[in-house]
Amino acid sequence: MASASSASKTRHLHLVRAAQSAGEAFAPPASDDTPIERGIRTSLMWLGVGLFAAIGLVFAF
Questions:
Q1: For residues 59 and 5, what is the distance between their CA atoms, to the nearest angstrom?
Q2: Can you give the pTM of this predicted structure?
Q3: Which residues, at least 6 apart from 2, have a Cβ–Cβ distance to it below 8 Å?
Q4: 50 in the Ramachandran plot: left (φ > 0), alpha (ψ -120 to 50) or beta?
Q5: Which of 50, 18, 1 is nearest to 58 (CA)?
Q6: What distance separates the 2 farthest-apart alpha carbons in the chain?
Q7: pLDDT tens for residues 2-56?
Q8: Concatenated DSSP letters for the chain?
Q9: What is the pLDDT of residue 2?
Q10: Any transmembrane segments, and where (predicted)?
């Protein structure tokens, strides 16, 4: 049976590795410096979604 300190070190190592993996998974790519090009279609689509949500809120309350 493993000692308490050995189990604690193993658990700590596991947590550190899990945190590093999670950090790498959610980190943005390093070459993500390009600006997002938004066309008129995208802007109109989001305007329509916002208008639809606003009308829905007016009728809900």
A1: 62
A2: 0.40
A3: 10
A4: alpha
A5: 50
A6: 66
A7: 556 677 777 777 777 777 777 666 655 566 566 777 788 889 999 999 999 999 9
A8: ---HHHHHHHHHHHHHHHHHHHHHHHSPPTT--SPPP--HHHHHHHHHHHHHHHHHHHHH-
A9: 53
A10: 43-60
Q: In whole angstroms, what is the distance from residue 37 CA to residue 45 CA?
A: 15
Question: Which residues, in sequence order, are CB contacts of 10 under 8 Å at separation 6+?
Answer: 2
Which residues does 35 contact at the CB level (< 8 Å), separation at least 6? none
